[in-house]
Design a protein that fits this description.
By secondary structure, this protein is mainly alpha-helical. The protein has helices spanning 5-19, 43-57, 63-70, 74-86. The protein is built from four helices and no strands. The chain starts with a helix and ends with a helix. The model has no long low-confidence stretch (mean pLDDT 93).
Amino acid sequence: MNIDGAQIIIDLKKILVEDLFVDIPLEEIKENDSLTIDIGLDSVGLIELVTIVQDKYDLHINIEQDVSDHFRNLQSLSKFIESRISRK
């Protein structure tokens, strides 16, 4: 799979709005917005996001380690996904 960080961020914004029903318009979500504070995901929303990301990008995500380290904002999450994809 060959995908760049910019496309991953677009995909993640769509996931937030279309699948997780975030009330922020797609174009207003910023790369460095906190997924919990700014975007408003709770623990259930984060788990749903983990599941969607695993399925979409065919990744295994360690919930205890990877979520706290990489699911802070879209920028950190896209870098994490991109690095994991490039290892395949």
